[in-house]
Amino acid sequence: MNSIGNTCNEIKHQYDECFQSWFTEKFLKGTINDDACDPLFKLYQQCIQKTMKENHIEVKDAEINYLGTDKECTPPLLKDKKSK
Description:
Layout (H helix, E strand, L loop, with lengths): L8 H17 L12 H17 L4 H5 L12 H8 L1
Helix pairs in contact: 1-2
């Protein structure tokens, strides 16, 4: 899957490869230290934040947890069933 911004795709794919390698070669064999991919993750995170700002997407809005709150969206089919 590609990133939110085309400029972030390469670093995202590098991070994905690093994570998959860590997961299969380390984590599944008992090593839980997960800092091997931290530098790539930080670069990817910075790229995403920059892209979000350029596209006027507020980072704080993406961090809000709406699940289980009054602001959580209800799928239209569920609303229709309730209103009948």
